Structures are given as structure tokens and as C-alpha cells.
Amino acid sequence: MKLMKHLAGVMIASTCLCAPALAQTELTMWYHGAGNEVESRIINQIISDFNASQSDWQVSLESFPQGSYNDSIVAAALAGNLPDIVDVDGPIMPNWAWAGYLQPLPIDESEFADFLPGTKGVWEGKLYSIGLWDAAVALYARQSTLDDLGLRTPTLDNPWSGEEFIAALDAAKASGKFEYALDLGMNDQGEWYPYAFSPFLQSFGGDIVDRSTYQTAEGALNGDAALAFGEWWQSLFTGGYAPGTSEDPADQETGFIDGRFAFQWNGNWRAVATMEAVDDVVFLPAPDFGAGNKIGAGSWQFGVSASSDHPEGAAEFIKFATQDKYLAAFSDAIGLIPSTPSAAEMTENYKDGGPLAVFYDLSEAQALVRPVTPGYVVQSKIFTKAMADIANGADVADTLDAAVDEIDADIQSNDGYGH
Q: Keywords assigned by UniProt (predicted)?
């Protein structure tokens, strides 16, 4: 009897010793930054920290080149094979939510009360995605150029008017010191066009689509304000102020630094490299063409796929990843705007008095997200083609009318996109 009890005890002890610990449940995540070593290093560090911080969830990452990422998501959605955690470009998010790829974030929105507006992906009144950074555009100039040309230095509170902006370009052109007065980055005929150039249209009083209903572009993209914008836009190229669509990418990369452009319309992601090469670079706010000065907003954000079996785990990771220390790490590494003021104070460039703090202020005060509609994925391409055509000499009114017809036909064929 004693022997049987002893054997039973050994068996119980052996069973306890051999039973494995409960495994962490895997969460799959897709990211758009394959090939970007800096981003990959930080994302992988966040994932490693999260996996080690708790015993419930294990995030595994698969990265894709940015150029093929969106197509990969669409294909995975059609195949019913989306990951738990999705990386989504802010203006694309409404389309993915409408198409059923994403679910509203299972996180109380108060968690993100201090985040910049452009970092929040909202559709139909619900938060679907949140970003670890935002991006902003400014007018790059040298203080010495402004002084030499006798130009007032515009500020956020007192920007240049449209007339002052053209006067500045005229002064730069007349000086004979520059190949072009202004560089717009016209070689990049992708999302740069609606992100960087539609704010000019909006400052004139127009828009890509009528945001009051999202059912038509009529009046917004071809009304009086839009026509005035289109004529101004075309004059930048016919008047020889800026290089057109055939601009060499290398010229756009180095033209301002080399002194061939007096001004450059560019994003904060180029600011650090420019500061290293240009001692007196200043970052100026967008000019006001009558309806306020505007810049674009909304960059890459994290969301939870609608098909995820573990939305609570995905939400835990997203909350973990949006800690200030990670927002600051991304900002210091890639130069983009941290999502919160507290994270900004942890950075070298965006803290109060930092060399790029102006971009945080610009984003907070001037940023306007691109049209919040599933139809934007089509509208952005139509707008891009129209801007390129007008820059290349097409009739302004005819081009804008044709763009309106295309946008309206797409909206109608998609039953209004759920608005």
C-alpha cells in the first residue's frame, strides 16, 4: 500500500513537471515598411517588448514593400486571410472600413484624447485606426534668401497671402540667382499630389469632393474657386516658376540644398537632411489664398482586421505601441511628427524650442485630412491626373469638368459609398 502511494506520488509529480506552460496566442501583423531598416528596427523592438511584457499574446510580423502593400491587403481580404493587426494609410482607411476589412478599434477613444487629429482614423463616427506619427508640409526657404529679396518672413499667425506668395516667387525669378523659384516635387505622381497640392485648392475654397454629402464633386472641383485655383496652378508652370512633371527625381532631392530652387514645398521627412546641409533653412507655413492656409494630414496607422479572432489582443498591442516612448523613438529615427505633445517633448527635434517644433504647430493648426470617404481611393487618382494635365497645358475648365464627371460616375456606381 505504501509502495502504491509512493508510485502515485511520483506519477503526479512527474505529470506536474512535464506539463508545458500555457502558450501565448499568436497575433499576426502586416506592415508596409519592408526594406526600411530604421522603421523595421523600431517596429521589431516594439513587438519584442510587447511579447516579453505579458504572457497572453505573441505578435508575429510580416513586412511588405510599400508599393505592393495595399494590393496584398485587398488580395488577403478576398481570400479571407487578413492578419489580426493591419497597417493602413490614413486616407485609405475609410475604404477598408466600408469594404469590411477593418472593425472599429476595441479601445476607448479617451485613450487617444491628446493625439493629433490627423493621427486618428475616423469613419462614420467611429475610431478605426490610430497612428504613431503624422506628417506635415511646409515651404522650405533660406533666411538669407528672404533677407536678400527683401521679403517678410511669414509666421503661423501671419502667413503670406496668395499675392505675397506670388510676389516672393516673382522676386526670386527676377533675381536671376535660381534655376526655378519653386520646387513642388512634380516628379512624384502618386499620393503626393492630393496630399501636397489639394490643400492649395482647399485654401482657394474648393475641394476634391463636396464634403457636405460626399455624393458629388460638382461645384467643389469645378466651381469658381476651383477654376481660380486651376488657373493659378497652371501659371506656376507656364510662367516658369516651377519645373513640371518631367522633373528629374534627383533634382527634387537635391535642388533646394544645392541652391537651384529658392523655395521648396516639402514634408518634414526631408527636414533633418536639409538642416544638415543648409545652415539657415527655415520652414514657413502655407500661404493663405483666401479660405485659410491648409496642409495635408493623415499618415500610416494601426487597425484591427474585421476577421480577427483575437481583437482584444490586437487592441492590447496597439495600446502598447502607442506609448510616448515609442512615438518619440519613431520621431527621432525617421523625422516624422510624434502624435502627442508629451511625446514631442521627449524628442530632440520636436520639443519646445526644437528645430522642427514648427511642424508640430503646423500640423496642429493647419492640417486637413483628405476627403474621408471610401471613394477617395479613386478620387485621388483622378485628381492627380487632372493636376498633371493642367500643369502640362490642358484647358483648366475642361479638365476639371472631366474630373468631376469621373468622380461622380464612380460614386454613383458604388451606390454613394455608404454615406
A: Periplasm, Signal, Transport
